Amino acid sequence: MRGLVALLPLVLVACGQEPEGEPVMRTEIGSGMADEAPAPSPTPTAASACRDVTFEDVPLTHCIADPARHQIVTDLGPDDGMPYRSLARMASERPTNAPAVVFAMNGGMFDTEGRPIGYYVESGERLKQLNRAEGPGNFHLKPNGVFFGTGDRWQVRTADDFFATIGDRPDFGTQSGPMLVIEGKLHPEIAKDGPSRAIRNAVGIGKDGRAHFVIANAPLSFGKLARFYRDELKTPAALFLDGNVSALWNPATDRLDSGFNIGPLIVVEDKE
């Protein structure tokens, strides 16, 4: 019976801007199997930490954060204010004495005000507890996960693993879902190439500790994005960040995506 259910796509509606506990996007259920593919060199250009690549005919932008050269922070909005809701506003209001931005993306499901519905830590302060509730939508397609870090150690873990093993509060953290890759394997309920197509972004951690951020430049399925992490980047763990509203700010190429209200932001900075 389970095999029959696994062949049916679970169709939900778009985006992450719904009341807490009801994040909605489209996702699909399937085999989670894919063919192996050769790994590319993931080295970015000297001028930019991001490079354009193509995977199975879909254009992507792949950005690398290196703990030897970069630091990562989360940024929801100005102190004691409402969330930024856009990369452009964050860029325009960023203090002049702040570290240089290497690139930034949105990351983590959010409510109608742009506030996180899952675990969220900014500058060591926890603004939202870990969300292990059941519910509809991509966020609740278990396992979901947490992207977090302290200093130069960054991790992606399933929410249950995070709950069971992480005792100290990290410097930054954001919860999203579903996981794309878990211990080198695809999420068991993500189809190889399901019918849902969207502009999506994600993050994965390589064996060398570098963080690989990817944003699609054309609509793609969950399965294709997951396979890019497993087969091309070979990251043991990868986490879906958002879809339909996914955005990137890359100052090196003057790319500043806009058009949709977004929630928590992940900012990669040069180390001071």
Could you walk me through the main structural features you see in this protein, from its secondary elements to its overall organization?
The protein is mainly β and 272 residues long. The protein has one domain (2-270). Helix content is 11%, strand content 32%. The chain is built from four helices and 17 strands. A hairpin with a 2-residue loop joins strand 7 (145-150) and strand 8 (153-158).
Overall structural domain count:
1
Radius of gyration: 17 Å
**Poorly predicted parts:** 1-46
Q: Encode the helix/strand succession as letters.
A: HEEEHEEEEEHEEEEEHEEEE
**Distance N terminus to C terminus?**
56 Å
Structural class: mainly beta
Average pLDDT, rounded to a whole number, is 85
Biggest sheet descriptor: 7 strands, antiparallel
Write down how many β-strands occur, each being a DSSP E stretch of 2 or more residues. 17
Total helical segments: 4
Strand order of the largest sheet: 1-2-13-12-14-10-11
| Helix content bin | 10-25%
Assess the beta-strand content as a share of residues: 25-35%
Shape: globular
Quick summary of this structure?
By secondary structure, the protein is mostly beta strands. It has helices spanning 2-6, 87-93, 159-165, 222-233; strands at 50-55, 58-65, 70-75, 101-106, 120-122, 125-128, 145-150, 153-158, 172-176, 179-182, 185-186, 200-205, 211-216, 237-243, 248-250, 255-256, 265-270. The chain has one domain.
